[in-house]
Every structure is written in C-alpha cells, then in structure tokens.
Amino acid sequence: MKFLKSIPVLATALLSSATYAAEPVNNFPSKPVRIIVGYPPGGGVDMAARLVGQALGELWNSTVVIDNRPGAAGGIGTELTARAAADGYTMMLCNIATHGITPARVKKLPYDYINDFSFLSRVGGNPNVLMAHASLPARTISELITHAKANPGKLSYGSSGVGASPHLSVELLKMMAGISIVHVPYKGAAPALADVMGGQIPLSVGNLPGGPLAAIKSGKVRGLAVTTLKRSAKAPDVPTIAESGVPGYEVNGWYGICSPKLPKPLEAKINADLIKVLATAALKQRLDDQGIDVQSSTPEELVAHVRVEVAKWTRVVKEANLGATD
Q: What percent of the chain is predicted at pLDDT more than 70?
C-alpha cells in the first residue's frame, strides 16, 4: 500500500527529471564549455582541440576553454572526463591513444572506455610515416621487407616511445609482413627524427605533420611510406604501406570529440553542431594546415570504430609481447 501511494510522487520526480534533462538541449550551452586535452599545449591533439573549440564557440556564441591535463598517455584527462558531470559542459579530444591503444595495453582502467562515454563525432586523422636514412639500401617497403628478412634483427627503428601510435605502427607492419626489426624508444619524436637524419639509426617513424614532413621535403630523410590507406595530400609522392606490398595495412592517427555519457537528445544536438562546424571551409582549411584530414561521423560510427581499434591493437600488443599493464 505504501508503494502504491508513492507512485504519484515517483511520477512527479521522473517528470521533473525529464524536464531538467530536456533543458540543456534547448538552451545548451548557457555557460562556458571545456574540452579536456590529455597532453601538453602545442602538440597535434592540442591544436585539433583548439581549432574545433574555437569553431564551436563561434557557432554557440559562447566560450569554449581548452583544459590541458597531460599524463599517462592521455589517461589522466580521460579519467577526468569520465568522472565529470554528464551535462555536455565537459568534453575531451579522444584519439587513437586514449580509446584505441590504452584500452588494449591497460587491463584495469579506472573507467569503462565504452560505456562511460558519449562518442560525439570523429574529427579526422593523420598518417604516421616510416622514414629511412639515405644509406639504407631499401627504397620501398617491398625492398625493406626483403632486406629485413635477409637480415633478421639487424635493422632498428626509432619512435617517440613504447606504446605510442608510431611504435605500434611498425609493430603492426612487422606482424603483417613477418619481419624482425628492433625498436629503439626515444623520449619524444624529435630526437628519433634527429638520429635518423644523422644516420645513427636507419629507420624512424612519426606523425607526418611537422618535423617528418619538413625532413622529407628537404631530402634529409627518405619517406618510405605513410600508414593510412590513402596517400597524404601533404606528401603525395610518398606511397602507402598498403599499396607497397602489405595489402590491408592501415594506421590512422584519428581524433574525435568525446564526453561523459550524455542523454541521447543532448548527444544528438552536440553531434549535429560538430558536423556543422566540421563541414565549414574555414575549419577544414585550418585542420588541413595541421595535416589533419577532416572526417565527421555519427556517435554510432565513432563507437564502432573504437571497438575495431581496440580489437586490432590488442592483437598487436599481444604479438609484440608488450604485456598489458594493470
């Protein structure tokens, strides 16, 4: 009987909750929005977040603040996002590391990388590029594979560090091509690039935009191949790994906008706004200047991509014997 008497009260509470949930959609945003970036200012992830945030701020006639929270390969910022209020006022720039590689490498995350998030839209991506010093006799990926098979374990390559996208790009190549190349981790992309330019190591891998692109264009290194399925418009003469003898190979350093798990109407509203700004010529050009190929998506498309990425990198982590951490 007490339960029956409580039904009107419960119904009123649910109605109030539904009304409250609808208000952010009608009025959103009515205060500043922050986009968390799990990396220091100035890098590719940070620049992508700032450009998208600026475009959203102009559309919303509101302030969008970039909140840099570096650490744990983006993990600190990811956990902060997962624990934030699910009201749309906290988002993050999610990427191949935070929602692809980290879930594959870390067994016990302090959040559910799928169910604690809304995947608002993909933003775009850029390739990694495998570079060689001029002294390396291999001038193509096919020749590199042949050379590596004839000299197992004698070649080495540098990257920005263990577990990052460039490192795992080569580990995926090794797995698919059946070759053995020794990884030399550096404390960042710049010193790895410097050593391949100087001939201290024969190979290096890194994100194409920035230093690698400049080094390839100036002839200081040879661009063997990019990791995306399509060639980059920034370096059209550099072939893809897939077209160079490893069909099906693809690594795209993708970016997206994620948030704590939102009510569906609010998720749909922000997705529509992201698609709108990403379709503008101005933002496309700004992102292209940073080497980012723009590609928006529905939330369902982005979450499906995340699931595929985690499955792929889980296989690579296991094959490379990197050992998933707690």
A: 91
Q: What is the DSSP letter of 282?
A: H
Q: Which of the four pLDDT bands, split at 50, 70 and 90, describes residue 88?
A: very high
**CA-to-CA distance for 115 and 222, rounded, in angstroms?**
43
CATH of domain 18-126+253-319: 3.40.190.150
Question: How many Cβ atoms are within 10 Å of 180's Cβ, its own excluded?
Answer: 12
CATH code, 128-244: 3.40.190.10
Coil/strand/helix, residue 71? coil
Residue 90 is inside which H or E element, if any? Answer: strand 90-95
**8 A C-beta contact, residue 110 and residue 326:** no
Buried b (16+ CB within 10 A) or exposed e, 107-127: eebebebeebbbbbbbbbbbb
pLDDT for position 322: 83
Hey, what are 104's tokens? 């594959």
Spans of all domains in the chain:
18-126+253-319, 128-244
Summarised one tens digit per residue, pLDDT across range 119-141 is 999 999 999 999 999 999 999 99
For residues 285-299, average pLDDT? 93
Q: Which residues are CB-neighbours of 166 under 8 A, at least 6 positions away?
A: 128, 159, 160, 189, 205, 206, 207
pLDDT at 321: 84
Cα separation, 53 vs 60, whole angstroms: 10
Please answer whether residues 301 and 271 qualify as being in contact, where contact means their C-beta atoms are separated by less than 8 angstroms: no
What single letter denotes the amino acid at residue 230?
A: K
Give the bridge partners for 33, in sequence order: 64
Tell me whether the CATH fold assigned to 18-126+253-319 matches the one assigned to 128-244: yes
Q: 233: which strand partners?
A: none
Choice between 252 and 11, residue whose per-residue pLDDT is larger: 252
Distance CA 95, CA 190 (A): 21
Rounded to whole angstroms, the Cα distance separating 84 from 80 reads 6
pLDDT for residue 16 is more than 80:
no
Copy the structure tokens of residue 24. Answer: 């952010």
